[in-house]
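Good morning,

Both structures are done.
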Amino acid sequence: MRIPLAGSASAPPVEHARLARLQDQGWRLTQTMAGVDGATTGDAGYCEAADWGACGLAFLQDRDGVTHQLDMSPQQAAEKSDLELLLDLRLAKGQDFIHTVYGSFSLVFIHKETGRFEAYRDHLGVYPLYYTVSDGAVTCASDLRACLHLSGVALSADAIRIADFIKGDEVDFDRTAFDAVLRLPPAHQLEPANQTVSPRRYWKLEIPQETVSTDCAEQLRDALQAATLACMRPEGSVGAMLSGGLDSSALAGLAAKQSGAPVQTVSFVYGADKAYDETRYIDAANETFGSIPHKIAIAGAPPLDDLATVLDEQMDLFLAPGLPKARQIYPHARALGLSAVIDGHGGDEVISHGYGRLVELATHRKFSLLYREARGAAKVHSLPFLALFSSHIAHYSGMGPRNPLRRLFLKLARYQTKRSSISGWSGTPISLITSDLQERIAATERYAPDPLLKTKADFNRAECLTHLRALNAPLMAQAFEVFHRSATAAEVLPRYPFFDRRVLSLCLAFPAEMKLRDGRSRWILREAMRDILPESIRTRADKAEFGDEIFDVVRDFYSDKQVSFFEPMSDFVSVDAAEQLRKQVIVREVTDVAAIRALWRLAVLSYWIKGLKGWCDAQAKGILI
């Protein structure tokens, strides 16, 4: 949607354009505009009431609650889309409507006569919203390509975002890879301010004041069941992604329990010769749930040469090495007639592994409990147990820096870590950024560690603080955008029951011992899923690891490359440092995960830079879309 800004002498006239579709998707529109005659269209749809119009994406997780606020009958509500209900609620409640809404949305409301607008992105950022201001107008869209096409802004790289990408961080909520286009952060609204626009936070995820310590498993089960049920409309067109892990299996089981017909599940299988094949768990889940299984045979991770296709779809940079493979599930789901899939993404962060409890146990010097819980954590993540146990005692048990016992534990931790480590990389991801760019962005300060736990009081509540930080991280919201682009390209929408705000608030209110207990992480979810999940899944302590797969595709990709491969990236990448790392990985002198992921990111960046030239050419010809 391109909207003139009041007071801009160069503001263009209000656009009136025909509806244009992207990739022939009937519900995902790319050309949006506002007109006083009501001829307004939007990404998912357009509606109007009184003097206002609304366009965008909307999926309500509490339609009944909204219709109750509007005092509507079931018959009246059934005739309205989620977008229409949100517009009615905005008109009834004013801007305070946003505090009573549960769901995912990317919305623009506009007054048809005055042109005043308001844009909103949902509380958790499940649906994206991009915007740019140029030539006296603001352009908003839930699709990055549409925003670039409609605004006509020059396509150039944001050097800060690229440096962050090379480093492997998502530091900002608002940057995209294009310096002229911003993303609206989660839980923010956008309003006109003189001749520009101003984002404003309307909500913040916080730790509840009261702790939930009774009937925890039952409350979590009820909350997840309600959230899953809300994600299953329209009935028959919503399936479930099933990996065989705890999170996806829990949601598929809850969906099957509440569905009037067998639920279709979609899974990747790799063959019995692969250590990370989950077929036995997938089969156990489908048999227990009575679902209709669909297995997608995958030989392995796609070669990095396929990144050109992925980058053309994404346009933005992404920190998801598994995406080239994971995105294949969406067209398969669509071919089955599914319009949406229930996705367990983020279950780890929402429920929390509970590892902050290790800090709390060390702080209170409960060493026997620490020993038990650390063993469980080490087993799940293949970490040296004694290193984990010893380092927590050394750092958090209150011993002074010169205490000989503390020195002993630190020495033991270092020894165990070194003994178990694989070939390490002497460099760092920052060393791959050119020195000029490092200086320009003040890299030392930008990437300086930000310790979460600074005081004894912080150590005493380490779990809830680390839990909250994980959920509030920029990477969480931007992961939603990555999945959204791949899914919508296949005309499918992912739905995330774990990211119902009521589920999040409940999980944040659980005490640490509900998350990590008896050596088992996410203990409370395991308890909540009794009699729903097969015991082999409910009690499993491991999870599939794909590190070897990524290492293989990175080595294969770079095996025939030369230093010239990095030269087109020389504005951002230290060519010499990148080439040295490439050589070390090829001969297996360096095998650690940080190095492999750093090279993977440089491969992505190389294709993005190539794509940028193609997108600029397409824009000049008016064929970006």
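Second structure follows.
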Amino acid sequence: MGGFWNKLIFVDLSGRDVWFDGLSEDLWEKYMGGVGLGSYLFTKYGGNFDPFSEKNPIIIMTGPLVGTAFPNSGRHEVVSRSPLTTFLGESNSGGRFGFELKRSGSDGMVITGKSDVPVSIFIDDGDVRLAETPDLWGLDIYETQAKMKKEKNYSVMCIGPAGENRVLFSSIMNDEGRAAGRTGLGAVMGSKKLKAIAVYGRKIVEVNNRAEYNRIVKEASKSIIESPVVSGFRSYGSMIWMDGGIGFNDIPANYFMDRNFQFDDLSSIKFHEEYSVSSYNCAACVIGCGRTVRYNGLTVDGPEYETVAALGPLLGNTSFQKIIEWNHEINRLGMDTISTGVIVSAIRHFIKAGLVNDGSVESYYSGSFEKIGQMIQDIAMRRGSGDRIADGLYRFASSLGIDRDLIATVKGLEIPLHDPRAFKAQGIVYATSTRGADHMQGDMYQIDIGGDHPDLGIVSGDRFSVDSDDRVRTVIRTQDFRQVYNSLIICYYAQPDPETIAKAYALATGFDSSIKDLVDRGSEIINLKRRINEGLGMRPEDDWLPAIVRMPIEGESPESGTSDEELISAIQRYYRLRGWGRYRPPVR
């Protein structure tokens, strides 16, 4: 078997113990790695524990292609129980960390227990040690990484003050500003007093058929580089969607209420013309969508599409300078930019609608957004009104009696910046995703503009329609397919032919699987995650999309709106086709 070391690092922070163990070959073949194997390991070592319990595990996984030259495979997945949603939390990140972890001679880590003092984990080509690091506690993520890298050129995964203070949407950051951002897993690290993990690895990952694997790698790299879509990412990063998405009315403004915004003000082309911008690649990446920008004499991480959309049009802000500043502050403190942006825009809307009557909260919005930076800091430090906001949008708004249909979350996770009125099937992805509202669990906004795979049952269609079995079946197969990406692990921006992915997997591991076999396993992984969530208290009525992102926008086609009846019908189809039994919508 190639592609795996069959070696997991186990760390008990309470007893300061470290040991190694492997898994059966059948499990590697069935779950592939990444989120698949991470979810399986959660069933084995996790359970119905409070997210901040010492028994709640943090599972970090690579995959069978990670650590090799397969394009855009240098990623890692983090799995734990989410403090934000209370369901299974998962998030993956690029950079170098997964690549280095795999090349250190391990496939992943299972971390349990809780330390009394701040600690960090150091991994040097397979040697693992724990060290007390109280001097790192309180440092931001850039300071932490810089200090740890003085010892060696480690890849560092860490939390900032937000994770230390258990902000429920805090992220786990690595390699400067790369982020496992969603579902608040930084707070789980903070609860364990685990500040950082540093890894250095130089071992060669063996594959089953090196010569043929190298040939597939070259073919896949060439096809990705020559893709017209990838050309845009290479030139302008993910922010290119600020120019492309507006043509589909996919970029929401003013808390999902309208599109009253001058989108040219925040064009990706304008950004690259007005600022000193550089690009960089994650490990094994052939695209290089990462951006850094000169700001106030510093070189800082440039904002990606979701961040620009959340801190720009969604908030009603037209200043790139403010977006760069806020993005840096959110990253520095270790929070999810999507959740933070949606929360800041939501509270602004609630204030205007008379739903928030708290002077300390309202003061953040005085003037022309000058105090948003202070708001971000107060949230991260759980200071003043920021303490309540740090519990996430759903808890904050619900505590004020605000109707669920006005709260832009699914299962407690703030909704990303692809508008379900532009691509209705994206709304079904949001509603049914096991980790909450999530554009990375099924990218129907890409499928319905021609990114389909008919051989896999993934067929583009009318973007305003979800009223047939065929349309809902495409949603399901798209979600299944993305579980393959999240298990192998491959960046979504890489779009090699699906058969190439299957061949690379077979050549790396020796497991002779077709792409259909892998997608079927993706379906099994979703069902596994569903069973985990049911054990954590999830109910069918949690699969719901709030009206705030469904109601038609004035001046747009009425068909872009999705009524309660239409949503219920689509989710009922989804349940039937998944074999999940009877769907019960929330009581209206």
